[in-house]
Amino acid sequence: MDVFGALTAARQNRKAFTPFTAANEMKNNMIGYFDTRILIKFLADAAAAKVAPKKQIQPTLNIDEMLKSQR
Question: Measured between alpha carbons, how far is 10 from 22 in angstroms, rounded to an integer?
Fold first, then answer.
């Protein structure tokens, strides 16, 4: 997502967010601005890549359960 890239890039007026901070910002403040299923899938994939970037991981994620917890 372009937003994640923008948050993790340094700007003239602020330092770059860490990937963890950027993911939290997106999770906490951007539900409703994006398709929630896509946002949750992106965050899950980003977390899996950060934990094991050299392995092929298919994250186990029940999107419907996560959506219920957001309500």
Answer: 12
End-to-end Cα, the chain, rounded Å: 23
Place of tokens 């994640």: 4
Closest CA to 7 of 24, 22, 20: 22
Closest CA to 2 of 36, 37, 34: 34
Decide if 8 contacts 23 (C-beta within 8 A).
Answer: no
Which amino acid is residue 11, in one-letter code? R
Q: In this predicted model, what pLDDT tens digit does every residue of 13-59 receive, in sequence order?
A: 999 998 888 888 888 888 788 888 888 888 888 777 765 555 555 55
Structure tokens at 22: 């950027």
More confident residue, 60 or 6: 6
